[in-house]
Amino acid sequence: MTDKIFIPLNTGWHAVQVTGGSIISPSTLPAALFVQIPAQVPGTIASALRVAGQFEYGKDNFDEVDVWYFCDLDLPDNAARLHFEGLATHVEVYWNDSLILRSENMFIAHRLDLAEHAISGKGRLSLRFLAMNTQLAQRRPRPRWKTRLVEQQQLRWMRTSLLGRMPGWSPPVAPVGPYRPILLELQSAIQLTQKNISSRIAGADGVLEIELLVQSQQALSSCTIKISGQDYTLNWQSLGQNQYRILGLCHIAEVKKWWPHTHGDAVLYALELHMHSADHQCVIDLGHTGFRRVTLDQRDGDFHLHVNQVSVFCRGACWTPVDIISLQNESTDLRHMLTLARDAGMNMLRVVGTMVYETTEFYKLCDELGILVWQDCMFANMDYPVSDEAFAASITTEVQQFLQRTQHSPCIAIVCGNSEVEQQAAMLGQPAELWRNAFFAETLPALCEQYRPDVQYWPSSPSGGVMPFQLDTGVAHYFGVGAYLRPLDDARRSAIRFTSECLGFSNMPDDDLIDSMLNNGETPGPHPAWKQGIPRDNGTGWDFEDVRDHYMAELYKVNPASLRYAERERYLSLARTTTGEVMAKTIAEWRRDGSTCHGALVWFWRDLRPGAGWGVIDAHGKPKAAYYYLKRAMAALTVLITDEGLNGLCLHVINDGPQAFEGELELNLYRHAESRVAHGRIAMQVAAHSVSKVQDYALLPHFVDTSYAYRFGPAGHDVVETVLYDCEQIIANDFHFPQGHQFAVQTDVGLRAHCSLDADGNHVLHLSAQKLAQAVSIQIPGMLPEDNYFHMAPGSIRQVRLTAIDGKSVKAGQVQAQNALTSVRVVLENSTISAASSAATTVVT
Known about the structure:
845 residues; alpha+beta; Jelly Rolls; Immunoglobulin-like; TIM Barrel; 5 domains; 8-stranded parallel sheet; 6-stranded antiparallel sheet; 14 helices; 17% helix; 33% strand
């Protein structure tokens, strides 16, 4: 038997929107039932409307209305408690006409004892979500500063997500409803009522410390815990009234450590509690844990994370919910998203303070996949009233519950007090003593020490310098390359230590998403439907599409405005690769040998709505071009080129993994994007968890102006390629274009393709190119390529594995080089893929 039996109350619900304050008790609700709709729990009123075919972005303002959810129940005799895991936001809960719960914090879970509230038999469970605007209209003390992030400053009193309430970059879909499960708990002979489990490393051993509270109708006779199958005896003591405290200190000899996936194996230990009384045996699945040590080097203003005493360059993205409308994580979709992040070399994701604490499944999957989590508490930009006693008690419970819920997840490395509170106060001229209040300075670190002593606490993102937003000290939000239109070398000049937000661009999606938004042939740009999906800072006269177009002009020497209306397809192609090129070069700068930077998290993971948003994944879950550029730049084993000016080019071979690397490094120089004019290849050895820098001259027989810095006459080459080999297998490559990215578009660069099946029955696309094939794009509907938007050197070949996308039909597609007018049509026949490889079947696009 298990310790508890939970029945999810996820069916039989209906919802209705009514004028705020018009219906104040369930008995008067039937008058409005003519507009009721079936509702999904967990979910939101927006997701219920979507299922009913009645949802449109901006059509409804859910903060203006009361939303009622109701469900008729017939409770069994052994029903014990009701659990509400998350209710957004101000809500009253009724059993028939009796008020049984009032909640004002969407981040707090509630447990109601049915006997205490005289709840039994048949009845109606009703939830009234009060109109947020009514709550915001109440008179409260004003803040000491105002933020442009939100329009309504009194949101600082509301413990709710800012999603849907941030003009400029969040679509207007305020989360209202039971967005986390509602559960009915049945009585059982032995119940686990509280648990505290922590893991740590002591020398070569792992230590698991356990403290549990148990309710048992009979005296316990034995209690053990299985840790990955090995039994450990636990002690217990009676507290009276059928309560027991169970204690244990378990030592696991020669424990296998948990690592971020880039640096080792994410080893987990299964935990299973066994309890016996006279007539009962109870087995409780306690989940899993991992053993790792997280430390933070802050000497001389640094912010340098170490895991198991090994330096880790943390890279990844700021996480966004899988579905902003329902706030649900469907299991398959969540795994797919997190697997994409892992496969891109991302070893850290940041859950940002403007959003929501993620589901338990999210942290379990990060544990499994070896992805570190930077966890913000849900506070951002505002002057929170932490001196108010009721508010302080609520937010303390909120954080306490989160830390307990995730207490033995090894993925969580950083707990951060808030997003941009210190920065906002400082930028608005507040004195330093007001930047950080007692809750972020004292209460939160104390809670972390109590419930998660194994994680590092940081008060605010950004924070650490003389000014909170100082770039070369502590944690920064870096948008120099990006919103502030700085040149690419600003990434080095700024001497970043760690950037928990960076490189926010309007990343262009592929054509299939564009076509789903606009009529066939309409050009993205000023079109109103298109601009709704373009992020902007509230109140500015520019948006992030302007930022992208600035860098497009710099990289490709084009006029983006003219290109947009004159050559639509070329504009879209350059828009996709512009942000990818800029991001990849900036990440390479930060990962190079000698860099001061120890981490970079891109802003952000997935678009919140269809369009060219900040996400490197589009709103439908498909990787954009920028994703693939980052995947190559963030790989655990790779080679990256940096331009060192008069010192030439440096090749940085990075080996994050636990094993030493032995292979070869090659350097190739090409003229007119076709003829190889210089070549060198050397043996390469790189120790585990390290970076080796190789000067380009070490691979060449004589001096060549590789970076074209001396400029003694015309450049002798326009393409530089470096390739990392392992036993003749290409592990990684990188390109540098000393004269710029603006290669002439040719009729044909000799790009050819054909498909085959490997030994496991997987599709493999074989590519070859006679000349430089710039930003080769693979577009095969229903197929996800392992790599995409990559350059191919003259005379090179390439193999790309293709994976069928679940639920998508596979259709004919094409392969296109950015600097070629022709594309290669990829044809599908009888569930296998073949590709035209002759000039006669090439299709001109």
